[in-house]
Amino acid sequence: MTLLFVLHLVGAVLWVGGMAFGILAMRPALATLPPPQRLEASAAAHRRFFLVVWHVMPVMLATGYALLFGWFGGFAGAGWHVHVMNLTGLLMSAVFLAIFFGPWRRMRAALAAGEAADAAAANNKVRQMVTVNLLLGLLTVIVAGWGRFGG
Ligand code: HEM
Predict the structure, then answer these.
(1) Which domain of life is it from (predicted)?
(2) Has residue 143 got a pLDDT over 90?
């Protein structure tokens, strides 16, 4: 259980921290590049980060439910923070899938077809949806940490 808990925390750091880096550091840094290179660099960074999330997301869900049932014996034995985390964790997963199969797929297709304007529009949508997921991720961490000590 301790190992699962540590994996859960490492996953949260990689996922939420990765989104914070992307929105707060990478995006403003990319603005210094001319638009075509900006899109290419943005796509290259997203390709790598989304691969990380494809691994982290199942680990978060699997370790979360393992802790829920192994540690607390199910929803009835868990505090309010675990119930909220379950909801926001599932929402984060749904938003990630919506990004991946929505604007991210459109962005890759537009780049492959040389449609810079469409790629830029899709890139903007990816950014907006990642910002939503970053806020959900921060809320999840705040709730999880707050509720842990009975707040
Ligand atoms: C996917 C986004 C998620 C993030 C970012 C996240 C984050 C965290 C963090 C930071 C903690 C440590 C809080 C503490 O000090 O105990 C934690 C604990 C925990 N998480 Fe998650 N979690 C997520 C999803 C889930 C899901 C879907 C479940 C399933 C119900 C879950 C179940 C748990 C449980 C049972 C604990 C231990 C709670 C405790 O020690 O009181 N988590 N999570």
Answers:
(1) Bacteria
(2) yes
